[in-house]
Design brief:
This protein has one domain: Alpha Horseshoe (Serine Threonine Protein Phosphatase 5, Tetratricopeptide repeat). The protein has 11 helices and no strands. The two termini are 22 Å apart. The radius of gyration is 18 Å and the shape is elongated. The chain is mostly helical. This is Tetratricopeptide repeat protein. InterPro entries: TPR-like_helical_dom_sf. Keywords: Signal.
Length: 227
């Protein structure tokens, strides 16, 4: 469970890592140097050391958002959701329309067992971006874990009808199979710590730029953290 959770978190938190943490700051500033050191340690999976440098980089105003997002990312990858969630909530409070941070926060809620918070966040994302089947499938997966089978089936059916040619067919089938499985017993159906098979939102944040996660677009594969 833990290894699967960290792998899923790596995928999600790598979505905008490169664009959030690179470029946009003054060359030669201490913020840039600390970010580079943090990125290097993060790429080596030395998350504690990476966190120290991201904390220092956050003191530079032009790197605050990028550093705090990267700090939240390494906290999540090390399983410290209790530290990652407040950081993401702080970022979102400064930019409530940021889709990438909203998606990361929703996943963090789900992975840490805060199912109600995850449900409300993913539902809001699905309502705002109902043209994106990935957003809907993420919502369905959290509904499934929360035990809201009837609603999960209804949303899944809506996705199947609206997106017959989506490239998410395999995932739709996997979720449908899980929903068709026998009900779990009360003793084994707790959602605490359960990790849904979520994917990062594909919709970029509005007003994208390369520097701040509060303004970042989706980044390509191949960031230091995904290698």
């Amino acid at each position: 469970m833990r290894s699967g959770l960290l792998k899923a978190a790596l995928v999600l938190f790598s979505v905008c890592f490169f664009s959030c943490a690179s470029g946009g700051g003054a060359k030669g500033s201490f913020g840039a140097e600390y970010m580079e050191l943090g990125d290097g340690y993060a790429g080596l999976s030395k998350y504690d050391k990476a966190a120290l440098f991201y904390q220092k980089a956050a003191a530079a105003p032009e790197y605050r958002n990028a550093a705090e997002y990267s700090l939240a990312r390494v906290k999540a990858l090390s399983g410290d959701w209790g530290s990652a969630i407040p950081l993401l909530e702080g970022l979102l409070s400064r930019d409530s329309e940021n889709l990438l941070v909203s998606s990361a926060l929703a996943y963090a809620y789900a992975a840490s067992g805060k199912t109600e918070s995850a449900l409300s966040t993913y539902e809001a994302l699905w309502q705002r971006f109902s043209d994106d089947p990935v957003s809907g499938l993420n919502y369905v997966d959290v509904l499934r874990i929360a035990g809201e089978k009837e609603k999960a089936l209804a949303v899944l059916e809506e996705i199947k009808n609206r997106f017959p040619d989506t490239d998410q067919q395999k995932r739709i089938e996997e979720i449908a199979a899980k929903l068709a499985a026998p009900e779990e017993t009360p003793e084994s159906s707790s959602t605490e710590g359960a990790a849904p098979d979520l994917e990062g939102e594909r919709t970029p944040a509005s007003g994208a730029s390369e520097q701040k996660p509060s303004e970042a677009d989706e980044a390509p594969e191949g960031s230091p953290a995904s290698t």
